[in-house]
Amino acid sequence: MSKPRICVIGAGPSGLSTLFHFAKMEEMPEIVCYEKQRTWMGLWNVSWKTGLDENGEPIHTSQYHHMWCNGPYESHQYPDYPFEQHFGQQTPSFLPRAAMRDYLEGRFTKAVAHGRNLRDYIHFNTAVRYVKYNDNKNNFTVIVNDYNTSKILEETFTHVIVASGIYSFPNLPEIPGMEQFKGRILHSHDFRNPREFSGQRVLLIGAGYTGEDILLQCLKYGAKHVIMAYRTRPKGDTCIMPEGIEERPIVERFDSNKAYFKDGTSAEIDSVILTTGYRNYFFSWKTDLEYRRRHNLILKGCTKQHCFIRRETIVYFI
User: Fold this and answer.
1) H-helix or E-strand spanning residue 15
2) What ranges make up the beta strands (E) of 5-158?
3) b/e string for 276-305 if b means 16 or more Cβ within 10 A?
């Protein structure tokens, strides 16, 4: 049997964990990892940029400067690389973004077996364009755009592992009147600094963890008034909301300077921040690897497993 040749798409924490465990093997299969950014860590690379990068690729990261982890590190640290080992001391349970990224980078540089450097397996600044399964050869063709050389390359692999994540393509609801609204509308994917909203009346649509964090940041950094529009129930049912935050049911329409809510009330606002989640999106696929762009549905024929199996060849989504 020929040696496997494996393609890993994405060098964020999931792709790096995949490389990490392959690197622990005495004899590694041949592995090529493609990463469209110029460095690793995926979403953990905060950037002031929004929209498109210098190559015309969509900005991958959805993180903002003052983000804090909403889960304690005790629940998601790597068992073979504890936080105390990395920082040399005990740390608070809830860490800021920069500390978490530092920890992740440490894990993938300091704890790799056999003296291997994971960067050696990564092609940075290289975007995957197309993946197709070759039924007659039982393998995959992967087409990439190498921005380092300005070339389109075509490679063949026995396996493909997709680790490019699902938190980069915003879910953008269409609400009547959005086109007439004269203020600013943005998705949390493009939110970077709460100081931009100082002195403003801000409406957040969506009452999840991201909405909760962003509205508190806006209030802390000088927003005049903040409204959170919820779909099912207000946060105030389960916790005490700070002064300056108002909750209303979902928005039904806009006009030039107002939002109109389901309970019949309205409010004048300056900016709208959509914290409405993300769409599961990947690049183009051949028909038998079709990806359905619906929430939480990974691949045709898959329910509990995030994979598509065709004979002995597997595409994994992690």
Assistant:
1) helix 13-23
2) 5-9, 30-34, 122-123, 126-134, 139-146, 151-157
3) bbbebebeebeeebebeeeeeebbeeeeee
Q: Please identify which residue in the block is written with the tokens 């929209």.
A: 51
* Residue 84: Cβ within 10 Å count: 10
The closest alpha carbon to 152, from 128, 124, 133, 119, belongs to: 128
Q: What is the mean pLDDT of the chain?
A: 87
CA atoms within 13 A on the CB side of 261: 19
CATH ID of 178-274, from 3.50.50.60, 3.90.1150.10, 3.30.450.20, 3.30.460.10? 3.50.50.60
Read off the pLDDT of residues 130-153 as tens digits, 9 standing for 90 and up.
999 998 999 999 999 999 999 999
What fold is seen in the domain 5-168+278-317?
FAD/NAD(P)-binding domain (3.50.50)
